[in-house]
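=== RUN LOG ===
request id: a7f3
mode: sequence -> structure
chains: 1
length: 82
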Amino acid sequence: MAKKGKRPRRKAVQSKKPVVPAAKAEELRPMLAATSAASKVSAPAKVDLAQEYHYVLADLRKIAMIALAMFIVLFILAFILR
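=== RESULT ===
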């Protein structure tokens, strides 16, 4: 079990919500309702992953070729250095 520290714990600071005057709140209410409704209703768009990540397959091929070349070099060096 950990030792108790000598310093006292700091108390958590509670965040205060900004106070908005009633007139300003009435102006903001339609905006807030529109943004919250839009965020709840919007569904993720259909994305063609093959079109978005067309470069990934080429990169994976390059990585595989480099790895294969490195293994071949290691294999050859293992026989030469014995």
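=== NOTES ===
The two ends are 53 Å apart (CA to CA).
Residues 56-82 form one domain.
=== END ===
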